[in-house]
Design brief:
heterodimer; A: alpha/beta; six-stranded mixed β-sheet; B: TIM Barrel; 2 domains; two-stranded antiparallel sheet; EC 4.3.1.7 (chain A)
């Protein structure tokens, strides 16, 4: 039966345990066999769906309000996903109605403004943003920091947190948003932290914690690293590259190992 | 100087050559984002008509980015070879297109012409060309480079084996290298995008690739795609480094955003040359580029993204590179929105690079937020194979698990070899045959049924 198979398997399949890369796929002629071809298409479809899935703000707000976190629904100036993907500048600022709404709620300011935006993967936000937000709220309570209303933003990019933080007169802002989905990671959540948020802050003034998802960085570990950043920022009155340099945690699991079977 | 063109009862005016070029550019999201694109399809074609009438010589007189404020412009103007330019110096952009399509433009005349062309001239003519023109002209040009093998010969196409791993794990990288080699990939380079930027980590990876290439006597070269200053530091620490890598762009300010200048590149080039590791030649720079990089650094001077890209090739050619790779779909949909835009951009980049004498390859790729899929990549791959591309990427199953994007697979390269009869670099082809990995007879490919002895032993030790 196997002799009649129209595909050729690769005798090095056991190497797949060494890497998440799609090795030893076998071949049909010299092309990709049907199974591997369809596996790939499914992974791509999942990643595409993650980009285009609308964020269910109501469900997210209901979840957060169960834990007594009040939410504000906001929109960026990018009116739909097509515009969002082509105009990053519009995704970085609020539309007029949202800006006005935020000003009404600004009050006397707060220590931390928390923003949740869809970014490039609403899937990531739907799966991981609520538990992450609750962890952050707990930390605020423990540190006796006041927390502003949670801003839920549709079609938002990282820098929109600057405007939101500024309008809420926040000392610090944290934004959680979906990262660019990979084939094997359609639901990766990113977190960016900025001290003294205001429009015009640039990337070097932010700190990023990336790859928050069960297979990557856990919510607990991400929250732990964020707390360190927030405490240091409060002490030194800054965020970004200067803060990162000292808070540096090795990002990789150990240094690259030279030893391998090809050289054994 | 202002420009104008009347057509269909309307007169269209443009403030300067930069505006003519930008508005003549085939539509793409990056130029819209920059606010330099034509306001309508009619204005775009009017600008193309206007551009077609501009004498090529004009580009030597009217710099799109001022000579005084940009070292890339100074490089382009100061290194222009007037004698090489002579055969086409009397032509307009429109007639240059006609000339390129004609018989007078052949392999030897185009090779001689390259130093006489500026990036702006080739960008201009590309804007009034269709896809078939970009292919027809590019396939007349050969740019052959050598380090341990010969890349870019007629009827051949090489592949970069890209064994990336999320944590740079040595065994994980080795698994992808073996997979790639056994699918006949890796003659352009075995090149890793490292997850780490620590110099110690880079040195370890360099040692590992050097050991693999030596142990199995593979006629290819290695590269760790790290910042040029890190490569210089690795050389200073005594690491075995074949190719010096750097991402480059077409304006001084964009290069500054990458942390480089022409002087930095010169330093890297000289450090690479000092190693004398090439056996067949000393082309040892590996550059990567991509439309949109200048705009994303806010360093585009209101010049359209395709012209900025062509200017990067002027930077590249100064250092006699082994490989120049336009990473066409990596940057995202705000610069190239969909498959159609990515496909055209890839062909433009290849055309412009080849006319300028640069050994062009292409990372035929897309991200998951672009409106593109495997079918689009198959089209660009087939078109670039037809156009005579020097090299493409090869990665397991098209999925880069480190950089989170999709590029061409080991299988994809074999597809092109089969359909177009393109063979690997001759030295590598010989090695593949000797190892009983792959034999190619015209369009017929024969992959070995058994594992090559040397690799079989390595796998047995592991089991």
């Amino acid at each position: 039966m196997h002799d009649r198979s129209p595909t050729t398997e690769n005798p090095w399949q056991h190497l797949r345990q060494l890497t998440p890369a799609r090795i030893a796929l076998g071949r049909a002629g010299v092309s990709l066999p049907t199974d591997a071809q369809l596996d790939f298409q499914f992974a791509h479809a999942q990643a595409r769906d993650a980009v285009h899935l609308p964020l269910d703000c109501q469900a997210l707000a209901a979840e957060l309000e169960k834990h007594e976190l009040g939410c504000l629904h906001l929109r960026s100036a990018a009116s739909d996903r097509q515009i969002y993907l082509q105009r990053p500048d519009l995704g970085r600022r609020l539309d007029e109605a949202s800006a006005a709404k935020l000003d009404e709620h600004a009050g006397d300011g707060c220590d931390l403004a928390l923003v949740i935006a869809d970014g490039l993967s609403a899937l990531a936000v739907q799966r991981h943003a609520a538990p992450m937000a609750l962890k952050i709220a707990e930390q605020c309570q423990a540190e006796r920091w006041s927390l502003g209303p949670v801003a839920l933003v549709e079609q938002g990019r990282v820098a929109i947190a600057d405007e939101i933080g500024q309008r809420l007169k926040a000392r610090m802002v944290v934004i959680l948003l979906g990262e660019r989905p990979g084939l094997s990671s359609p639901d990766s959540l990113g977190l960016y932290f900025t001290w003294a948020p205001q429009v015009g802050r640039h990337d070097a003034q932010r700190n990023c914690i990336s790859n928050i998802r069960p297979e990557g960085l856990s919510c607990n570990l991400a929250a732990h690293r964020l707390l360190y950043l927030m405490r240091e920022a409060s002490r030194r009155q800054l965020s970004g590259v200067q803060l990162k340099d000292e808070a540096e945690v090795p990002a990789l699991e150990g240094e690259p190992r030279a030893g391998n079977f090809l050289l054994g | 100087m202002t420009y104008s063109h009347s057509v269909g009862g309307t007169t269209w005016r443009f403030d300067d050559l930069r505006e003519v070029m930008a508005k003549a550019s085939p539509a793409r999201s990056g130029d819209l984002l920059a606010g330099v694109a034509a306001g309508s399809d009619a204005e775009r074609v009017a600008a193309q008509m206007c551009l077609a009438a501009v004498p090529l010589k004009r580009f030597l007189e009217e710099a799109l980015i001022p000579y005084e404020s940009d070292e890339v412009t100074r490089l382009i103007i100061d290194s222009h070879d007037a004698a090489a330019f002579a055969p086409v110096s009397h032509l307009s952009v429109g007639d240059f297109r006609n000339w390129l399509l004609g018989e007078e433009a052949d392999e030897s005349s185009l090779k001689a012409l390259a130093p006489g062309l500026t990036p702006e001239m080739v960008a201009a003519v590309s804007k009034i060309m269709r896809v078939q023109d970009l292919i027809l002209v590019a396939q007349k040009v050969r740019v052959v480079t050598r380090f341990r093998n010969s890349i870019g010969l007629a009827g051949r196409m090489s592949t970069r084996l890209q064994p990336n791993h999320p944590t740079d794990d040595g065994a994980g990288i080795a698994a992808s290298i073996l997979d790639g080699l056994l699918y006949g990939n890796g003659d352009a380079v075995i090149g890793i995008n490292p997850a780490t930027d620590s110099t110690a980590g880079i040195c370890e990876l360099l040692k590992m690739l050097d050991a693999v290439i030596s142990r199995y006597e593979i006629p290819t070269q290695a590269c760790i795609l790290t910042h040029v200053t890190t490569s210089i530091e690795a050389i200073n620490r005594g690491a075995p480094l074949d190719l010096v890598f750097q991402s480059i762009a077409g304006t001084e300010a964009a290069n500054a955003s990458f942390g480089i200048s022409l002087a930095t590149l010169q330093e890297g080039y000289e450090a690479g040359l000092s190693q004398k590791r090439g056996t067949l030649g000393d082309n040892l720079m590996y550059f990567e580029t991509g439309q949109g990089s200048a705009l994303s650094a806010n360093a585009h001077h209101d010049v359209d993204q395709q012209t900025c890209e062509a200017r990067a090739y002027a930077v590249a050619r100064r250092y006699k590179p082994l490989l120049v790779n336009t990473v066409v779909g990596f940057i995202g949909p705000e610069y190239l929105y969909n498959g159609k835009q990515i496909i055209r951009a890839g062909l433009e980049d290849h055309f412009c690079g080849k006319l300028l004498g640069v050994p062009m390859g292409c990372d035929i790729c897309y991200t998951n937020h672009a409106e593109a899929d495997q079918d689009d990549m198959d089209m660009l791959l087939t078109l670039l194979g037809t156009a005579g591309i020097n090299f493409i990427m090869g990665i397991p199953g098209s999925d880069d698990v480190m950089l989170n994007y999709q590029t061409t697979s080991f299988h994809d390269a074999l597809y092109v070899r089969q359909v177009l009869g393109l063979r690997p670099a001759p030295e590598f082809e010989e090695w593949l045959a000797k190892m009983q990995i792959l034999r190619q007879d015209g369009n017929r490919l024969q992959l070995g049924r058994e594992l090559p002895e040397a690799f079989r032993r390595a796998l047995e030790k592991m089991a």
